[in-house]
Amino acid sequence: MFSAGTSFLASCNCSELISNSKVGPSFSSLFDHSLRRCYRFPTGIGIRISGRLYGEPSGRSKAAKECHVARSSIQAISSVSKSGDSKATRLRNLLESPGIHLGPACFNALSAKLVERAGFDFGFTTGFGISAAQLGLPDTGLITYGEMVAMGQEIARAVSIPLIGDADNGYGNAMNVKRTVKGYIHSGYAGILLEDQVSPKACGHTRGVKVVSREEAVMRIQAAVDARTECGADIVVVARSDSRQAISFEESLWRSRAFADAGADVLFIDALASKEEMRSFCEVSPSVPKMANMLEGGGKTPILTPVELQDIGFKIVAYPLSLLAVSIGAMQGALAAIRSGCLPSPGSMPSFEEMKDILGFNVYYEEEERYALSTSHLSSQRGYSTSDNCDYGSSHNFQDDTEMISQRLQDEVVEVLTPEVSHSYNNGDSTGGSFSRMWSRKLRVKISGRDGFDKLDIRIPAAFLEGITNIVPALVGVNLKELLDNTCFDDGGKQLLDFKDTMGDRIQVFLE
After folding, report:
1. Is pTM, for the whole model, over 0.90?
2. What gap in Å lies between CA 284 and CA 269, rounded to an integer?
3. Average pLDDT in the 448-469 region?
4. Greatest CA separation for the chain
5. Ramachandran region of residue 45, left (φ > 0), alpha (ψ -120 to 50) or beta?
6. Residue 485 — φ and ψ, nearest 5°?
7. Strand pairing partners for 125?
8. Positive or negative torsion for Cα 400, 402, 407, 411
9. Which long-range contacts (CB under 8 A, 24 or more apart) does 439-442 make?
10. Omega into 98 within 30° of 0, i.e. cis?
11. Which of 386, 447, 462, 490 is least enclosed, having the fewest CB within 10 Å?
């Protein structure tokens, strides 16, 4: 989280920012020099990142005072209580806390994790991003309610911070809106953003934006509030109007007032075209928080700093495309490097250890230790051993299994069936009956774990069947001789057995 001065000046190189902003040499380490552009802050203005202040203003100029206001207000996010409160309650506390609050938009569980790790106390999901990442398609109403609610469940479960879910136009009429709200509540969202576009919808700031009638638009918000009440939930309803682009600015103000009267918790007009329009919007229903949308890369709304947005009257700010856009750029750069026969530069991506930490490998390993079973206990249950000290799913684990099983094969005492012994099985038939043919065959015994990896794959001559149940206890009670007698003239490769033992491992026996 950062706080800055009253405005961003012209973009510049990182070296220019360090030399011109008087932030000191330690500040340079905070920037990834693989980024080509960044922003210059006015001389004498400090910024705070992760609680540390860089470039403390030397005087109390007007700009410095405004910077101080921004620091204190934006940092107020971290003071919101998280103990025991639902995500919706925490989001409401955030809306009631001082200052302006910044929320990047995520598009999958990983990007949501990164938002939380970066120190943000809330975020959004973006229909634009989810449609792009999951379907590879434009945000033009092609993605369905079912796909959005399923992805929302994965995203919301991945983080502890409250998220506002993009629900487009509610996917139908007022009754569809009620179902959508209930689905988003069940998914774990703290808030839901609903718009007044027709179906199929268009992406904001693009062509073809059309809205439903005033009456239907208000009924959608009323239906959302009713659905929340029926569920006994506290989800925050964010009411969005696209009528500024579809009809007029005056129409969007009328709809915002009506949405507030219908019970909306936050108001949002998309595609506001000037600072004057943004200020007029914030004067509507002053007791209801307002949301700003800073569409990166060239939308219709002016891009303003958090300080400017707070001064106008906004409470929360969405940054809808930053994560998706830089991800696309990074992947394109990596693919170009690989295609040219190179690897992406180390500075352009985290190390493997950092990636494992982000994804929770270390936390998983620590928790796994709590449920680890001793080798002797596993041996008594399964009849074959695993290594307790190996990482879950690693090939080393199964290699140890195979080595230990092979050792047991060497240690087992088995009865060797010689031709003389086999003669007695055939009642003295010197011509060689079915068992004499069976004696030359082999059995393949294969054991696969629940994760799909092979734990055992051995071939045993049919004459050495005694003692096999000591190696594979699951074969106790199976009359292998009878199976062989019935199939001794069959071609090799026939499957004799295929079942799962009590531990969930798959046991397969083949005739070769």
Report:
1. no
2. 11
3. 78
4. 112
5. beta
6. -60, -40
7. 106
8. positive
9. 439/463, 441/484, 441/488, 441/492, 441/511, 441/512, 442/511, 442/512
10. no
11. 490
